[in-house]
Every structure is written in C-alpha cells, then in structure tokens.
Amino acid sequence: MRYRHFMHYCEGSLMPLRLLKVRSPNDNKDYLDDCFATHFAFLEEQLSSAPDGGPYLCGATLSGADFVMSYPVLLVTGGWGNLDVDKARFPKLFGYAEALRNIESYRKAEEKIVDLEKEFAA
C-alpha cells in the first residue's frame, strides 16, 4: 500500500505545486510555500516511519516509489524555487536526498550528463 501511495503521490499531490511555482513564481507565494512545507513535513514523517528503518520510503530496499519521488526531492533539497527548506527542520528529507545521490547508478547518470552537457545541476 505504501508503495502505491508514493507512486501516485508525487504526480498527484507534489508535482502540481511545482508546476504552479514554475508558471507563476510570485503568485500565491505564501500559499505555495505553506503547501510545500506541509508536504515536506509529511515526507519527513514518512521517512521516519519507513519499514525496516528505511533509508528509503518503502524500506531498506530502493523501489520504484523512490525513483518517482527522487525528482522533486532532489530539486527541493538542491535549492530549486527559492523555497524555505531548512535542513535542520527536515533532516530525514535531506538525508534521503543524499542517499539517492550516493546510489552508484545515479552518480554514473550524472557523469554521463556532464560528459554530454558539460554541466549538471540538480
């Protein structure tokens, strides 16, 4: 059930806010910042209660849910959108992002992007 939730949560709940932020970054800023804070607090709690102690959303093993969630999590923890995402307030979220960045296949993909594009920003 947890796996299915995150497979749809990203696209149905988190990404629409990201699109609103991209399309009109100054419109509804307070509303969007509050919504993002609510989602980050939810993700922090979910990471704290991950089966088998995590470190991934659905347990000790990387899953498709982690791949789906990696895009918004890596954007947010990387400074996208000038959101007020405090590392001290969301330590599990930042730790999760770091765990994703340390996956060998992620690092290889990042290297490939740098080879092709001469830079990488996440």
From TrEMBL:
Signal peptide: none annotated. This is Glutathione S-transferase. It comes from Mycena metata. Residues 28-104 form the Glutathione S-transferase C-terminal domain.
